[in-house]
Amino acid sequence: MEPSVLLLLAVLLSFLLLLVRGHAKIHGRLPPGPCPVPLLGNLLQMDRRGLLKSFIQLRPIWEKYGDVFTVHLGLRPVVVLCGTQTIREALVDHAEAFSGRGTIAGLEPVFQDYGIFFSSGEQWKTLRRFSMATMRDFGMRKKSVEERIKEESQCLVEELKKYQGAPLDPTFLFQCITSNIICSIVFGECFDYTDHQFLHLLDLMYQTFSLLSSIFSQVFELFPGVLKYFPGAHRQISRNLHEILDFIGQSVEKHRATLDPNAPRDFIYTYLLHMEKKSNHYTEFHHWNLLSSVLSLFFAGTETSSTTLRYGFLIMLKYPHITEKVQKEIDCVIGSHRLPTLDDRSKMPYTEAVIHEIQRFSDLAPIGTPHRVIKDTIFRGYLLPKNTEVFPILSSVLHDPQYFEQPDIFNLQHFLDANGALKIIEAFLPFSTGKRICLGESIARNELFLFFTTILQNFSVSSPVAPKDIDLTPKESGIGRIPQVYQICFLAH
């Protein structure tokens, strides 16, 4: 069924529901915004290419509203925050008030406000404290993340050599290496690159991330209460995630069968021990929070870094002169006879600037993850009632012209000063900021540096397509930004 037909049905059914139930008014003084049309909200004023384009276009069109305005997604009002200072003021200066999690309609039926990513309030605080402590234990103390990444890097190098420079799509190999890092922490094991079940799970995650970022999922955000009854991407997303949950559930049962209170070996073991403590008064430690938290960590730990690497190497193919300069710095600082280490990072400002600019330009989570105020909150003179949804548009930070001279162009001078040193920019917030900053930020930063440098230490890269013809326009841009599918040749030095 065509999206336009679904949308028409959604509008008609919404009208009927409105007549029956009435329309609940939000009491408060929300920021001004474009005048909504009954039932449709601001749909008619939005860009057909999606929510991000719409929010960015709404900002200058209604310039009088500034960087804080209200947009109606169907019957659902959301407060949109744009710009570095605005988002920092909300998520840092008013961190507690803005610490609730908003709704992603395509994921809500699966997670249902559970787990580390989608919970709020005391449940979220307890799960976050536990998750941070446990990931620190199994990511840093037992065996450092650095050593894990270096081992995985070597496995990747050996795998890439097998292709002997033949063109390949790097999607699943990049997924394998990033997923194995989080798998070692969460499941206590890594997987072979030929493991069929593992590859199937990676494919499900890739499909899901693509579907979540599709235009259909963005339309679904407007009328989820009605569109959920019709076929569409939301049903495939649900099927995919439930299949991954089945795998996680089987792993949990295996852990439970071999549970040793004296030797917790990973995230799942440690969580199960918390569940079994008779003196434990935290009701947050239950089975569904475990499954939802593991799914969140598994999914995010795989897709975020792998997509950034995939975008990064596409950019390197587009700009081979930048790749050559990175390799010269690698030769100068590291050489060819030892593995890159995290200590090398401070001596490699050019490479660091490249990775920073890749993260800024790729703009992986452009809309940001929705927040929700957990209490009535005064912000910029407006009263945001408790449970008001807030969209901090991270793309408006990573493309903020006050900090980046050419925000829409890949330009290393954004992060290099006149002396070639790395510049620290407060608008560099690819992991968001505040209390709900990405839990795996440090792991992701380490992965990007070590994987990126190890690959370029061992291989030259080339494309079957001429650099001028390489398209950096994302294939999908919604919840996430996903690069075009491409082929790359890794030529061993």
TrEMBL record:
GO terms for cellular component: cytoplasm; endoplasmic reticulum membrane. It is found in: Endoplasmic reticulum membrane; Microsome membrane. GO terms for biological process: epoxygenase P450 pathway; xenobiotic metabolic process. The keyword Endoplasmic reticulum applies. It is an enzyme of class 1 (oxidoreductase). Its cofactor is heme. It holds the Pfam family p450. CDD domains: CYP2B (cd20672). Residues 1-24 form the signal peptide. It is a peripheral membrane protein. Heme binds at residue 438. Gene3D superfamilies: Cytochrome P450 (1.10.630.10). GO terms for molecular function: arachidonate epoxygenase activity; heme binding; iron ion binding; oxidoreductase activity, acting on paired donors, with incorporation or reduction of molecular oxygen, reduced flavin or flavoprotein as one donor, and incorporation of one atom of oxygen. Its EC number is 1.14.14.1. Its main location: endoplasmic reticulum. Keywords: Endoplasmic reticulum, Heme, Iron, Membrane, Metal-binding, Microsome, Monooxygenase, Oxidoreductase, Signal. Belongs to the cytochrome P450 family. Cytochromes P450 are a group of heme-thiolate monooxygenases. In liver microsomes, this enzyme is involved in an NADPH-dependent electron transport pathway. It oxidizes a variety of structurally unrelated compounds, including steroids, fatty acids, and xenobiotics. This is Cytochrome P450. It comes from Rattus norvegicus.
